Amino acid sequence: MPDRMYLAVMLDLQFRRVIGRAILGAACQHDQTPAAGAEGP
Protein backbone atom coordinates (compact mmCIF):
# COMPACT_ATOMS: atom_id res chain seq x y z
CA MET A 1 0.00 0.00 0.00
CA PRO A 2 2.70 2.60 0.85
CA ASP A 3 4.32 1.99 -2.54
CA ARG A 4 1.00 2.56 -4.27
CA MET A 5 0.44 5.81 -2.36
CA TYR A 6 3.96 6.97 -3.22
CA LEU A 7 3.40 6.22 -6.89
CA ALA A 8 0.08 8.06 -6.85
CA VAL A 9 1.67 11.13 -5.25
CA MET A 10 4.56 11.15 -7.72
CA LEU A 11 2.20 10.82 -10.69
CA ASP A 12 0.00 13.60 -9.30
CA LEU A 13 2.95 15.97 -8.84
CA GLN A 14 4.31 15.23 -12.31
CA PHE A 15 0.84 15.67 -13.84
CA ARG A 16 0.37 19.02 -12.11
CA ARG A 17 3.83 20.16 -13.22
CA VAL A 18 3.08 19.31 -16.86
CA ILE A 19 -0.32 21.00 -16.76
CA GLY A 20 1.09 24.06 -15.00
CA ARG A 21 3.85 24.36 -17.59
CA ALA A 22 1.32 24.05 -20.42
CA ILE A 23 -0.92 26.71 -18.86
CA LEU A 24 2.02 29.07 -18.27
CA GLY A 25 3.30 28.51 -21.80
CA ALA A 26 -0.12 29.23 -23.30
CA ALA A 27 -0.50 32.34 -21.13
CA CYS A 28 2.94 33.64 -22.13
CA GLN A 29 2.25 33.04 -25.82
CA HIS A 30 -1.15 34.72 -25.55
CA ASP A 31 0.01 37.72 -23.50
CA GLN A 32 3.38 38.67 -24.98
CA THR A 33 3.85 37.19 -28.43
CA PRO A 34 5.65 40.25 -29.88
CA ALA A 35 7.91 40.62 -26.83
CA ALA A 36 8.89 36.95 -26.93
CA GLY A 37 9.57 37.17 -30.68
CA ALA A 38 11.75 40.25 -30.19
CA GLU A 39 13.69 38.81 -27.25
CA GLY A 40 14.69 35.52 -28.83
CA PRO A 41 13.65 32.04 -30.00
Question: What features would you describe in this structure?
Answer:
The structure is a single chain. This protein has 41 residues and is an all-alpha fold. Helix content is 90%, strand content 0%. The radius of gyration is 16 Å and the shape is rod-shaped. The protein starts with a helix and ends with a helix. 0% of the residues are buried. The mean pLDDT is 79.
Topology:
Elements: H1 2-31, H2 33-39
Q: Choose one word for the global shape.
A: rod-shaped
> What structural class do you assign from the helix and strand content?
mainly alpha
- Integer average pLDDT: 79
Most strands sheet: none
Report low-confidence residues grouped into runs of 5 or more. Answer: none
Order of helices and strands: HH
The radius of gyration is: 16 Å
What percent of residues adopt helix (DSSP H or I)?
over 70%
Kindly, what is the distance between the CA atoms of the first and last residues, rounded to a whole number of angstroms? 46 Å
Number of helices: 2
Q: What fraction of residues sit in β-strands? A: under 5%
Gist of the model:
The protein is mainly alpha-helical. The chain has helices at residues 2-31, 33-39.
Key terms:
41 residues, mainly alpha, 2 helices, 90% helix, rod-shaped
